[in-house]
Write a structure and sequence with these properties.
Radius of gyration of chain B: 26 Å
Distance between the termini of chain B: 42 Å
Distance between the termini of chain C: 50 Å
Shape of chain C: globular
Oligomer: heterotrimer
Number of strands of chain C: 0
CATH superfamily of the largest domain in chain B: MetI-like
CATH architecture of the largest domain in chain B: Orthogonal Bundle
Largest sheet of chain C: none
Chains: A alpha/beta, B mainly alpha, C mainly alpha
Structural class of chain C: mainly alpha
């Protein structure tokens, strides 16, 4: 009798707990999902805060940031620092892919959706209105380089050559000045944000999937495979570059931070943190913290990203570049 | 019965207490059963409701199953899942073709040839193989099998063959365990009769034991295939993931599970691409039912 | 003559295959342990992972795996034992019972990725649990439950009929007989089965990628209030388990020693699973000896 009662109690308890958890999350969601969806209105956050009170003292609550697994380490590092400074705040960072992040933020389940790609590129056709509800906060820039197995013997490819390779028109390295070795493409799946960026800014057009090509989503595996496979080519974020692979110049321009910030080297993308509508005070405080020097000059650089503030140019979702 | 109970408990009180106890038991076990049933129905319902969306939005079922081109980003997107379906079937069946002979031999070793050593050493080994997590298999496959295939055969190592080899080790325990059970359940008289007629051990195994236990052996093989069919991470790490039919054993290709693992997190809910991935999950689920029914059919034949 | 030759060849082949299988396992284990054990230390087991610097550990992941296992068992054992009791004691031989058997069989053969996706859709999105330990535990419940049902059913069926009848004859109710007579006798078998099932739960990754998440918030191991969000005991925080961590650092690891960490974590994972296996065997053997000796 007693045992079975205990069991029933456990069950009931876990169900109640589940209900509590559910409520918490929905509350958070609705708080932030509330009013104006107009983008770019600047008078937010500060509105509700009387300036006399120190903001750090009253920040309290929970922030949930879901999305891109590549961005998760950066957001986590920043979140830890933010929590050190604001004892009553909890920032939860969850990695589940950019698509999941955008879905959850647009449905109000999370406060922030981390994405390595513009929301407009993910929400297409019928779903396009959802992208319009989201407010973009660009917190860093990630640059990528085409990389090859060191033995192919080249260090530069032009845009035309890259396109020919990724379209399967050039199949041997000797055709682009390397050794006589068949080209092995290590691509990303078509859903990948990294691939979208590479296609848009390095190739200039979408490349087809080719029979026999390797597709890996994760940068670690891509690096491992390119380093091991003779004649392999792929592309990686600069933070993943090491001695096992050779990073290529693009049209003669080296993939360096300087060349990215001054707009010479085009293969890069913003790291976005999306909120639904304008963020709440707490979320705004965290986003401000992400953009503060403390994060931008330390964690962002350490993790191989380029601070958003360092960019001298701005690029919109269509790829139009303007000087800052 | 009740008269024997100590006298200070009146009869009615006892039976009342019995009744409450019985009810507690009945309600509790019933609740557990209901949870089971609700779980399966909600799984089928939710996966089907997402998976069928693709077809409600104008994708033809037959084209989805038989199409060879998978271009979710084309305008309009093209979803042909045949390469993945083929990939799943070919890797799991090849894995079974590799694992089945090994498993049968191991089972015969444990039951017919050296039961003592078999039970003592081989059985624990088989059980341990079953316990190794699939990420570890993928990790080892990527570090050992892929480089080996790359150096020995044409191609890049990643591909159909690598997937099948990794899977074959993973399903070996399933096939072996069931084969062992079947062989040891065989009535001793059958074998003794055969020996009495002067047959050698191999003749007995080959002519008597294997044919008699054939349906049970096949049950193990089908269960193995079913497990291989649903395996995700280890396969995804070694198969190469090109969304095309493979041109050779060593060519990069995809399975249903590998496509889902690769792209699910990157797509937003309700986008055509995401819906198509759910349709793949639905196919996986339907195949589970098919496998369960094949197993049941085989089990019925075993009993006869 | 040729029959004898065939017999000899077949015997040799079969023994060779048996040795081959043992060799595969020895090779596998050897490879994992040799590559990984060098990296395993007390510090590695307890420190937090580092995203870019060297020297990260697997402390929180190890804790998460254990905690997730405990949560899963808390949900699975009562449900599984209850359903198992129903199947062995209450179920009548009718269509409904056949149907439940089918349900159990189907549930246990669902691919873990389908279970994970179901968790993502229903638990994470629909119920708004987010990526959390609780969602992970519920997803693991889905394929642990049918195992528990089978284990319990078999264990209870194995209880000698005389003992059950004696208890009923003494005037105990059926339920009382089950809970205080049959369950204790069946307990060793249930325990062994549960431990073996735990090994599988411990190594599961595919379903957890979509439910428990791939990140681990910073935990305050001095805060044991389960409702506080940085407490290790909070079931509604996201949690990366050891198996998921191996998957993640293999794929996204930025730390310079990512490969060693993956190898070390794999070794730890395999050792834990082996421990589960040996414990189950030991308990099984011990109980068996005790029972047979007393008879």
């Amino acid at each position: 009798m007693k045992k079975s009662l205990l069991l029933v109690m456990t069950l009931v308890l876990s169900i109640t707990l589940a209900a509590c958890g559910g409520n918490n999350t929905t509350n958070n969601g609705t708080n932030n999902g509330t009013p104006n969806n107009s983008q770019g209105s600047t008078n937010t956050g500060g509105n509700n805060t009387p300036e006399t009170e120190p903001p750090a003292a009253e920040l309290e609550g929970q922030i949930l940031a879901v999305g891109s697994s590549a961005m998760a380490p950066l957001v986590e590092e920043a979140a830890n620092k933010f929590m050190d400074e604001n004892g009553k705040v909890t920032v939860l960072v969850q990695a589940g892919g950019s698509g999941t992040g955008l879905t959850q933020v647009s449905e109000g389940q999370s406060d922030i959706g981390n994405s390595d790609i513009f929301a407009e590129e993910k929400f297409v056709d019928d779903e396009a209105p959802k992208a319009a509800e989201l407010v973009d906060h660009q917190i860093a820039v990630v640059a990528m380089a085409a990389v090859v197995n060191p033995e192919v013997g080249i260090d530069n490819l032009t845009q035309a050559q890259l396109l020919q390779i990724f379209k399967g028109e050039v199949t041997n390295w000797s055709e682009v000045g390397g050794i006589d070795q068949e080209i092995v493409i290590v691509n990303r799946p078509s859903s990948s944000g990294t691939r979208k960026t590479f296609e848009s800014y390095a190739l200039g057009e979408a490349s087809p999937d080719l029979p026999g090509q390797i597709q890996e989503e994760s940068s670690g595996n891509v690096r491992k495979l390119i380093g091991e496979t003779p004649g392999a080519i792929g592309y990686l974020a600069l933070s993943y570059l090491d001695d096992s692979i050779t990073a290529l110049s693009y049209d003669g321009i080296e993939p360096t931070e300087e060349n990215v910030t001054n707009g010479e080297y085009p293969i890069w993308a913003y790291q976005h943190m999306y909120t639904k509508g304008e963020p709440s005070e707490l979320v705004q405080a965290f986003l401000d913290f992400m953009l503060s020097d403390e994060v931008q000059t330390n964690d962002v650089v350490e993790l191989g990203y380029i601070p958003a503030s360092a960019m001298t140019i701005v690029r919109d979702v269509e790829g139009n570049v303007t000087q800052k | 019965m009740k008269e024997r109970v100590t006298l200070d408990h009146p009869k009615e009180k006892i039976s009342k207490q019995h009744l409450t106890e019985e009810w507690v038991g009945k309600i509790y076990t019933w609740l557990c059963i209901i949870v089971l049933i609700v779980t399966i129905f909600s799984m089928v319902y939710f996966v089907a409701s997402r998976g069928l969306t693709t077809f409600f939005r104008g994708v033809n079922v037959w084209e989805f199953i038989s199409g060879l081109r998978w271009q979710p980003d084309a305008k309009p997107p093209i979803f042909g899942a045949l390469p993945f379906i083929f990939g799943s079937f070919s890797t799991s069946i090849m894995a079974a073709l590799i694992a089945a002979p090994l498993g049968f031999c191991a089972a015969i070793f444990m039951t017919e040839i050296m039961p003592k050593y078999g039970r003592r050493y081989l059985q624990p080994v088989i059980e341990l193989l079953a316990g190794i997590p699939s990420v570890v298999y993928g990790f080892v496959g990527l570090s050992i099998i892929v480089p080996f295939l790359r150096d020995t055969f044409p191609g890049q190592g990643l591909g159909l063959a690598a997937g099948a080899i990794v899977l074959s080790i993973m399903i070996l325990p399933t096939i072996t365990t069931i084969a062992t059970d079947a062989l040891s359940a065989l009535p001793g008289g059958l074998k003794e009769g055969s020996y009495a007629l002067g047959a050698t051990r191999w003749q007995t195994i080959y002519r008597i034991v294997l044919p008699t236990t054939f349906p049970a052996l096949m049950t193990g093989v089908v269960l193995g295939i079913s497990r291989a069919f649903g395996e995700a991470l280890a396969v995804q790490m070694v198969i190469g993931n090109a969304p095309f039919l493979p041109r050779s054993l060593f060519d990069s290709t995809s399975t249903l599970t590998s496509v889902i693992t690769l792209s699910m997190g990157n797509t937003v809910m309700n986008s055509p691409h995401n819906n198509a991935l759910w349709s793949l999950a639905l196919i996986l689920m339907l195949m589970t039912f098919v496998f369960v029914f094949i197993v049941r059919w085989l089990e019925r034949r075993t009993k006869i | 003559m040729s029959a004898k030759l065939a017999n000899r060849i077949a015997t040799v082949v079969i023994i060779a295959v048996a040795i081959f299988i043992v060799a595969i396992l020895a090779g596998l284990l050897g490879y994992i342990l040799v590559r990984g054990l060098g990296h395993v230390s007390w510090d590695f087991l307890t420190s937090v992972p580092q995203s870019i610097r060297e020297g990260g550990g697997i402390g929180p992941q190890l804790f998460n795996s254990v905690f997730l296992l405990v949560l899963t068992l808390l949900i699975t054992v009562p449900l599984g034992v209850g359903a198992g009791i129903y199947m062995s004691e209450y179920a009548k031989a009718n269509r409904f019972t056949d149907f439940i058997r089918l349900v159990v069989e189907v549930l246990s053969s669902f691919p873990s990725i389908v279970v994970g996706l179901f968790g993502l859709l229903v638990l994470v999105h629909y119920f708004g649990l987010g990526y959390s330990l609780f969602a992970g535990a519920l997803a693991l419940t889905v394929f642990n439950l049918p195992l528990m049902v089978r284990i319990t059913e078999q264990a209870i069926r194995a209880v000698p009929k005389e003992q059950k009848e004696a208890s009923l004859a003494l005037g105990l109710s059926r339920w009382k007989t089950i809970t205080s007579i049959m369950l204790p006798i069946a307990m060793p078998n249930i325990l062994t089965g549960t431990i073996l099932a735990s090994g599988r739960v411990f190594g599961e990754a595919a379903a957890l990628l979509f439910t428990a998440g791939m990140s681990s918030p910073r935990l305050d191991f001095t805060n044991w209030n389960p409702f506080s969000s940085n407490s290790p005991l909070n079931p509604f925080r996201p949690a990366e388990t050891l198996a998921v961590h191996i998957w993640k650092i293999n794929s996204e690891g930025l730390a310079p020693d990512a490969a060693e960490i993956a190898a070390g974590a794999s070794a730890v994972l395999v050792i834990v699973v082996l421990l589960f296996n040996f414990t189950a065997r030991f308990i099984g053997g011990y109980i068996h000896r005790k029972f047979t000796a007393s008879k």
